[in-house]
Amino acid sequence: MQKGKIGVSSDNLFPIIKKFLYSDHDIFLREIVSNAVDATQKLRTLASKGEYSGDVSNAKVSVKIDKDAKTITVSDNGIGMTSEEVEKFINQIAFSGAEEFLDKYKDDANAIIGHFGLGFYSSFMVSNQVDIISKSYREGATAIRWECDGSPEYTLEAAERAEVGTDIVMHINADSEEFLEKARISEMLNKYCKFLQVPVVFGKKTTWKDGAEVDTEEDNQINDVAPAWTKKPVDLTEEDYNNFYRQLYPMAEDPLFNIHLNVDYPFNLTGILYFPKLKNTVEVQKNKIQLYSNQVFVTDSVEGIVPEFLTLLHGVLDSPDIPLNVSRSYLQSDSNVKKISSHITKKVGDRLAQLFAEKREDFETKWDDLRLFIEYGMLTEDKFYEKAEKFFLFKNTDNKFFTMEEYESLIKPEQTDKDNNLVYLYTNNPEEQYSFVQAAKNKGYDVLVMNNVLSTPLINKLEQKYTSKRFVRVDSDVAEHLIAKEEPKHELSWEEKNELSPIFKAVCPENKDYGFVVDFKDLGENSFPMVITRNEFMRRMKDMSAMQGGGMSFYGDLPENMNLVVNTSHPLVKEIFEARDAAIGSELETIKSNLQAKTAEKEEVDQAKKDKKDEEIPSEVKEKSEDLERAINALKDEQKAKLTAFGKENKLAKQLVDLALLANGMLKGEDLDKFVKRSFELIK
C-alpha cells in the first residue's frame, strides 16, 4: 500500500471550484459521468486504430445508488488508469494550493476548464470520502484502488477488477443525502447527461405487475447518444425535428419552424433553434435554449450569452468552442461565445428572410406568432433590424399584410399631411375603437392593427428613425383632424369655449384614473354629437411607463386626460344650446354684459397703472383694480355655476356624454344602469 499527500485539500480546492467552475451544487454528477464518457470514447478511438483488441461494442456508463452504504457509484468500461496515471493525474494536480492556483490562472480563468482531475474533485463537494477502482486497458496492467477523505492524505494499493474501466465511489456526506434519492439522481441525469455520446444507464426499466412497479431485465438508458442536432439536415424530416422538440419540451405546443445550424468555420457550432408560438406578452418563459459543449450540458441560462431577443427561441446550441463551465460571467466574456452569438443573429435573420421570400403566404399566416419575436429583435439589435426591414409586416384592419415599402406606397397619396409627413393610423383594439376605425376608413384612410406589448416602443423607434413619418392612434382625435390637410377652420374662441364647457363638464364622470378636457369642433351635422379621444403623447408615455417603470413611473402615476370633443354642428348639440338659452339665456346675457363692463373698466384702470412703479400708483387706484378683479372673478364663478347647474339637470347632455363613454367601453356599473333607465325615459 502506498500512502502520500496530494497537492491540494478540500479546504482550499472547494472555494476555487465554486468560484471558477460551478454555480450549481449538483454539477458533480455531470463532471463524474462526463469523465467516464471521455474515458469510454478514448478506448473506442484506440480500438478503431487497432491499439486495443478488446470488445467495445457494449461500452456504457452506469450510475448506481446504495442508500444503505450511502454511496453513489459511477462505472465505465473505458480506458482505465494505472497506478502511475493515478499518481500523475489525480495526486499531482498542477498546483500546490489555492493561492498559487489563483495567481497562475487569474488572467485566464478558462484555462482551468478541463484541467484533468479538477472535475473529478467536484465529487468532494458532496462526499466525505471518494474511492477510485480502476484497471487500465494496457496489456498486463493490474487494477488499483485509490482512497481519499478530502484531506491531503490518500492511499493507493492493488485491487481486484476483472474488466478494463473505472469505478468512482462517492461516500455521500450527511449534508448531501438528497443525492441518494432515485428521483433526484434521475432529475440530474436528465438535466446534465441526456445527450452524452456514450449510453448512460441508471438502474433497470420498470413495469407494472400485480399493482406494483417492478424492475425488468432491460437497462434504463437515460440518454440519446445521437440527438437530432448531431445529424445532417438532409437526413432529417420535419417530423424528426418536431419529435426532437417534443423530447426537449414535452408539454409545449408544436413550434412554427426551425433553423438547423451546422458551422465548421471560423468556429464549430451545431444546433437546432425553434420558433415557438409566443403569447402577446413579454412575460415569456426564457431559459429555453440549452447550451452544450460536445453534447455535455453547460447551461440553460443564456441571457447575456446570446442576444436578448434570441432568448425567446427554444432549442439546442452545441459547440466545443464553448468552455465547459456553468459560470455565466465567463461565458459572457468569452470571445468565441461572442462570435457565435453574432453568427446566430445573422442566421436567424437569413432564415426569416428566406421563409418570407419563398413562402410568403405561409409566413403571413404565422405572423401573429412571429411578430413579438421580430419586434423584440428590431428593438434590441441594430444588425437584426437591418435584415428585418425586408420581412417585417404591417397588418391592417382588413387582415391584409404589407412590407414597410409596400405600405408606404399604399398610404402616401391619401395620408400625407400638409407638412409632407406620412401619417400611419393604427388601432390597438379594433373592436373597442371600431367607430374611430370606421370614421377613418370613411375618409379613405387605411388603419393598421398594432396591438401587442411592444407596439408602443416600436412606434417610437420608427418615428425616431424616420423623422418624416408619424404614427397616430385613431382614437387620439376626430377623423377630420387625424391628418392635417389644411389650416383648421374657424373655431370657437377661448372665451366662447369657457362659456360652454361647464355644461358638459358637469355631466362627465368623476374618476381618479382619468379627467376630461371639453373641446368644441365643427365636425358636420352627420358626424357623432360627441367623441372622446385620448392624447397621443400622454397615452404613449403611460404605455412606456407600464413596461419600463423606473424613471418613467412619473407618467404612470398621472391620471389620463381624455378629450370630450363636442360637435357644434350636430342637431342634438344645438338642441342643448337652445335649451340653455331658453332656461338661463337672459341671466347669462346679464352676467356677460356686466362682465364686459367690469373688464373694460379694469382695462382702463390698468392702463392708468401702466409704466409706473408700484410706489407711484395711488392706493385708491390699486384698491379699485383689486375690487374689479374680485368682481370679474365673482361674475365668472356665477356664470360657471349657472352653466354647471343647467348641465346637471339636462338629461340630453348627460345622455350624449354617456353615449360617448359607452362607445369607448368606459360606461360601467351604476352609471351604465342609469344610462339604460334614462334611455327609456327619453324614448317615451
UniProtKB/TrEMBL annotation:
Alphabetic keyword roster: ATP-binding, Chaperone, Cytoplasm, Nucleotide-binding, Stress response
Q: What is this protein called?
A: Chaperone protein HtpG
Where on this chain does ATP bind? Answer: E31, N35, D76, M81, S96, G97, T166, R328
Origin organism is Aquipluma nitroreducens
**What is the top-level taxon of the source organism?**
Bacteria
Record's SUPFAM superfamilies?
ATPase domain of HSP90 chaperone/DNA topoisomerase II/histidine kinase, Ribosomal protein S5 domain 2-like
Cytoplasm among keywords: yes
Alphabetical list of InterPro entries matching this protein = HATPase_C_sf, Heat_shock_protein_90_CS, HSP90_C, Hsp90_fam, Hsp90_N, Ribosomal_Su5_D2-typ_SF
Record keyword Membrane present: no
Against NCBIfam families, the record matches this protein to: PRK05218.1 (NF003555)
Query: Taxonomic classification, please?
Result: Bacteria, Pseudomonadati, Bacteroidota, Bacteroidia, Marinilabiliales
Q: Provide the GO MF annotations for this entry.
A: ATP binding; ATP hydrolysis activity; ATP-dependent protein folding chaperone; unfolded protein binding
